[in-house]
Amino acid sequence: MSVVQRHYLAVADDNNKTVKIIDTRTGRVTSEISLDCDSVWSVTNVKGDQIVVSLTSFEPDFQHNLLTLTVSASGAISKGHVITTRRLTYDVVAIAQHLYVLHNNDIKVLDMHGNILKTIICDYTSFPSIAVSPDKKTIYLTDYDNSSVQGMTLEDKVTATYKGKDLKRPRGITVDNEGFVYVRSDGGIYQLTKNCTMIQVLTRMAPP
pTM of the predicted model, to two decimals? Predict the structure, then answer.
């Protein structure tokens, strides 16, 4: 999910291969758009009315694309242009009109035309996810296989790491306006400081 136009949530619906726009004031879907793909991975806000969604299509050849979408003030959604990434995109966030595209072993920094500006190496093997701090200076990454979370600068310097037996297989992350980090894992939803130290467990998952 991603906030767009202040009052709307853009939701990537993989089961139905759509992006839905939900009005947070009423809880109703104002519009949705069907996408010609096999998987819808993630969605991020680029600016006030623009979002980007990552897609994968299996036929005729594997294709991995980013699609820009525009959401109007009334909550209507329309298609923009396509950016081809050529590799599976697990997650994507926008920082100052640049797209930080997370693959399984690196982050590609793209401009809005798809030109590669930078490559950040980060060796993650499965289900990684990415978030960014409110000041746009720190990237947070989950590492599913090593059950850890890392914070790093935009210049790829690791500044903080959280790893403990209580955090199991993290596979979702976000940051609030105050800089607190929230991580979804098999053990529950964890709240961390901006320096990746544990604050509390907000919810615990029941064992299987």
Answer: 0.76
